[in-house]
Design goal:
The protein is built from seven helices and no strands. By secondary structure, the chain is mainly alpha-helical.
């Protein structure tokens, strides 16, 4: 990506979007880790989306549930840090999109799905999870890690400048 193609404001906006989403994921992960009572059991057991049977299976055994909880907590932390620091940005963005897609498919806001998971508002098809997933899709096509982040530092150190 050439800095001459896009304005400074455009590039700054894309990096800010990456940082904001990174902060959201990081904070969600830390909040879950620090809360000794947090578990994904309610979300998984209340799933009515297309992956409901998989989510019910995950919640049905304590060992599986503990593994899912740990993967969720630490996945959020690592993905958030990756986005904030701009490290392995494309891979991090893809993995964050996958995680958000799994959240969305657990209880999509569709007619006929009466989710037991409380919502902040009333949604139909589009909710904040889908919007954040779409924003990550935008970031995926703009290598912001090559502009600001550890990816940029490493590529310059390897003589690969972007």
């Amino acid at each position: 990506m050439s800095n001459r193609t896009y304005s400074g404001l455009q590039l700054t906006s894309l990096v800010a979007l990456r940082w904001l989403i990174g902060w959201h994921l990081l904070y969600e992960g830390i909040a879950k880790i620090l809360n000794p009572y947090w578990t994904s059991a309610g979300f998984l057991a209340g799933s009515e989306g297309p992956l409901a049977s998989l989510y019910l299976w995950m919640a049905s055994a304590p060992g599986r549930l503990a593994a899912v909880d740990a993967l969720n907590e630490w996945g959020l932390v690592l993905l958030g840090l990756g986005l904030i620091l701009g490290v392995f940005t494309r891979t991090t963005t893809l993995l964050a999109m996958l995680l958000l897609a799994l959240y969305y498919l657990g209880n999509p806001p569709l007619i006929g799905i009466e989710s037991s998971v409380p919502a902040e508002g009333s949604y139909l098809i589009v909710n904040k999870t889908l919007i954040e997933l779409a924003a990550l899709g935008v970031l995926l096509v703009f290598p912001t890690g090559g502009l600001v982040g550890l990816d940029a530092i490493w590529s310059k150190g390897n003589g690969e400048g972007r």
